[in-house]
Amino acid sequence: MYYIIYLVISLWGISTATASNLTDAEILAYDSPPIVQENFPYYLSGYDEDGAPIWVFELGKWDVRTFLEKDNETAFAMDVACDQMLLRFKESAINSQAKQFLYICDMDKYSLRQASHLRTVQFVLSKLSMDSQRQLLMGPRLAIGTSSAGSVGKQYRRVRL
Do 9 and 149 contact (CB within 8 A), yes or no? Predict the structure, then answer.
């Protein structure tokens, strides 16, 4: 049942939630407004034993809904900034010994306000499914603070702390 819901939302979400028709070079050259840079943090945590970069993004702290409810320009800036993050992950993989990257998606503080807003869910699912669209060289993923429903359709490793 969850798989069907995930499939329907992600297929519809991919077509409606993304605004960017930019090339990879244009996305990487895009200068996001400071408010977007401050509200969507991610960082390189280190490298695994094979030399693959390990990225962390704290999705639970991202207020995606507020940015989607603002004007189209703000939503576009957030969309491009998320694409930019994923492309930076990809570049780090290309430049690493392992030729792949790992990411940790920290869902701590992800609120019901976010999870109950359809456009926000569409946006998040569209970005998390971009590994197949942009061939991101992704290794295993780790989702922290999710339920089993949060990992439907993906090969996540869940950790309960």
Answer: no
141 pLDDT tier (thresholds 50, 70, 90): low
**Could you say which DSSP state residue 108 is in?**
T
Which pLDDT score, from 0 to 100, does residue 29 have?
94
Using 50, 70 and 90 to split pLDDT, how confident is the model at 17? very low
Q: Which fold has domain 2-159?
A: Phosphatidylinositol Transfer Protein Sec14p (3.40.525)
For the chain, the structural domain boundaries read: 2-159
Q: Are 57 and 20 in contact (CB under 8 A)?
A: no
Strands 53-57 and 42-47: antiparallel
